[in-house]
């Protein structure tokens, strides 16, 4: 987050994916990501007045490959709009690119479990960037 040393955050991502039959992408994904400094959620010293955070909204094209009927790999490329709140006096909107890769297993026809890495890189205002590692569950309608 922002242009300062890395920090540990706690966050999540909510997304909606749709199957798209025209190439080059197999699916499209609209996502919302939120991350905030992990110290906000830990007990202890509450003298810190501000915990940095960020919001982002993204739109990505997803490439999918089945390695076998149970294991799949997905790569994504898209655009993000990121609200950088690195410091209490910073509140900027940044536009940039989103890269993602995930791999996982299909537990059943409708349920999947994946490990995912997102990298967001922006090019405007504060040039904020982030890496987000997550375990994600998917339910297919």
How far the N terminus sits from the C terminus, by CA atoms, comes to 34 Å
- Widest sheet, order of strands: 1-2-3-4-5-6-7
- Name given to the CATH architecture: Beta Barrel
Task: State the shape.
Answer: globular
The major sheet is characterized as:
7 strands, antiparallel
Number of beta strands: 7
How much helix is in the residues? Answer: under 10%
SSE class = mainly beta
* CATH class wording: Mainly Beta
What does this structure look like?
The protein is mostly beta strands. It has one domain (9-139): Beta Barrel (Porin). It is built from no helices and seven strands. The protein has strands at residues 9-19, 27-37, 53-66, 71-85, 92-106, 111-122, 129-139. It has a seven-stranded antiparallel beta sheet, with no helix packed on it. The model has no long low-confidence stretch (mean pLDDT 89).
Short description:
The chain is an all-beta fold and 141 residues long. It has no helices and seven strands. The chain has a single domain, classed as Porin.
Which features characterize this protein?
single chain; about 140 residues; Porin; 7-stranded antiparallel beta sheet; 7 strands
Structural topology:
Elements: E1 9-19, E2 27-37, E3 53-66, E4 71-85, E5 92-106, E6 111-122, E7 129-139
Antiparallel strand pairs: 1-2, 2-3, 3-4, 4-5, 5-6, 6-7
């Amino acid at each position: 987050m922002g242009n300062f040393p890395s920090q540990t955050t706690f966050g999540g991502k909510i997304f909606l994916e749709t199957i798209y039959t025209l190439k080059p992408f197999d699916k499209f994904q609209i996502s919302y990501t939120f991350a905030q400094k992990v110290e906000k959620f830990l007990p202890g010293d509450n003298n810190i007045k501000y915990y940095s955070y960020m919001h982002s909204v993204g739109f990505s094209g997803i490439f999918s490959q089945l390695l076998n009927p149970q294991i799949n790999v997905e790569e994504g490329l898209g655009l993000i709009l990121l609200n950088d709140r690195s410091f209490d006096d910073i509140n900027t909107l940044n536009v940039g690119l989103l890269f993602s890769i995930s791999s996982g297993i299909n537990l059943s026809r409708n349920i999947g479990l994946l490990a995912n890495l997102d990298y967001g890189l922006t090019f405007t205002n504060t040039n904020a960037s982030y890496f987000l590692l997550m375990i994600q569950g998917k339910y297919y309608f």
